[in-house]
Specification:
It comes from Desulfitobacterium chlororespirans DSM 11544. The protein is α+β, with helices and mostly antiparallel strands and 391 residues long. It has 9 helices and 17 strands. It folds into 2 domains: 149 residues, Creatinase/prolidase N-terminal domain (Creatine Amidinohydrolase, Chain A, domain 1), CATH 3.40.350; 223 residues, Alpha-Beta Complex (Creatine Amidinohydrolase), CATH 3.90.230.
Length: 391
């Protein structure tokens, strides 16, 4: 379980050896591709894996990060002019605050101007971007405009392998994340009863997660109670009274103090369950095991998705139309994606959430567990038993 050190402000820090491992990987990556700088951005704490991988802190605002070929690191984020973007020492060469929020569109050049000042001090011929879909137009356009003649390249596809393959230290942190989620799942039956509002249960689960050592961005606590499980809802929609016979659909994905996510999706029935729920639950466990066995090194994400839909349609279920799993880590979702589009190859020590959806006779379940990729298939790290828990 995650431990909270009393009177210590900044907790869950990776070791210096782990951070040096990442920086060395990034420098070698840049050397092989002739890059002078890497540039990336984080816009929230849920999909912030690139900035956090480099600089360990979870951004509170739009945050821009530059990493140069010599290992120098610059962070630009919200704060008072002339001050620091973050108060902690995390190995930054430049820690730059800009006194505007990102929806102040008149100031869309501020971050780029600071980035250009840093880049021009050392010179740059080739600039690599990580996560183009996360980089704001204002920052990108102003950066390019102020750096004429510089070659730019999107290196996300290759860099994602550095982030997706976890180190031994990261895997220890990730197992702790799974253990936290297991503990919460075991506590859920004591928080559920007929006549209770979903919102009341959700609030208790939120508080439990926080006290067990979960960190910021506890937004992925989805709940829904119905006779036949189906959709799930965030806090704003958790307004139904839990009734006798309801299946409570709970998606619980929170980050630990170390910043790592786990995925736990479970179902709890208040009283006797509907027969349809038992049928789809059994199928959900079967297909999850099938997909985990497929997740060997060399298999591609879209191949897992294709195999999932072949299994579903062969067994009389609706096909998956979104994705049936994904990587996790500092990001709630990371590559590889098990969807129709991602051709990323699985590598040993990638950390996965596998959660295929099974629908039949009005019922729908999506059992979610975490795994680590091995040469012989994915090993389940989640320990809480699968299946419908009767309360």
């Amino acid at each position: 379980m995650v431990k909270i050190e009393h009177n210590v402000r900044y907790q869950g820090r990776p070791s210096q050896q782990e951070m040096q491992r990442r920086w060395n990987l990034a420098r070698e990556f840049m050397k092989e591709r002739g890059l002078d700088y890497l540039v990336t951005q984080a816009n929230d704490g849920v999909l912030c894996q690139y900035v956090r991988w480099f600089a360990e802190v979870r951004p509170l605002h739009y945050t821009y990060l530059l990493f140069d070929k010599e290992g120098g690191m610059t962070m630009i984020s919200h704060g008072g002019a002339g001050g620091k973007a973050i108060p902690w020492e995390v190995g930054l060469t430049n820690n730059i605050a800009i006194p505007v929020f990102n929806n102040a569109c008149y100031a869309d050049s501020f971050a780029a101007e600071k980035a250009v000042e840093v880049i021009q001090k050392k010179g740059c011929r080739r600039l690599g971007f990580i996560g183009m879909n996360l980089i704001t137009v204002g920052f990108y356009n102003n950066l390019i405009k102020r750096l004429p003649g510089i070659e730019t390249v999107d290196v996300t596809d290759e860099f994602d392998y550095l982030v997706a393959v976890k180190s031994a230290e990261e895997l220890r942190f990730l197992q702790a994340a799974c253990d936290l989620h297991d503990a919460a799942a075991y506590a859920i039956p004591s928080l559920v009863y007929a006549g209770r509002l979903e919102r009341e249960f959700g609030a208790d689960l939120y508080r439990l997660a926080m006290l067990m050592g979960a960190d910021e961005y506890l937004s992925n606590l989805f709940v829904c109670s119905s006779r036949l499980a189906g959709p799930m809802f965030p806090l704003h929609y958790q307004n139904k009274i839990i009734e006798e016979g309801d299946a409570l659909n709970v998606l619980f994905e929170v980050p630990t103090m170390e910043g790592y996510y786990a995925d736990l999706h479970r179902y709890f029935n208040v009283g006797a369950p509907a027969p349809e729920m038992l049928e789809v639950m059994a199928a959900g466990i079967e297909i999850q095991d099938y997909l985990a066995d497929l997740c060997k090194t060399g298999v591609k994400g879209n191949e897992v998705f294709e195999a999932c839909n072949e299994w579903l349609t062969k067994n009389g279920f609706d096909p998956e139309t979104r994705l049936c799993g994904h990587g996790q880590g500092y990001g709630l979702v990371e590559r590889p994606y098990f969807d129709a589009f991602d051709n990323m190859e699985l590598k040993e020590n990638m950390y996965l959430a596998i959660h295929p959806t099974v629908k039949a006779k009005g019922a729908s379940v999506q059992i979610g567990d975490n795994y680590v990729v091995t040469a012989g298939g994915a090993k389940r790290l989640t320990k809480h038993p699968r299946g419908l828990t009767i309360i």
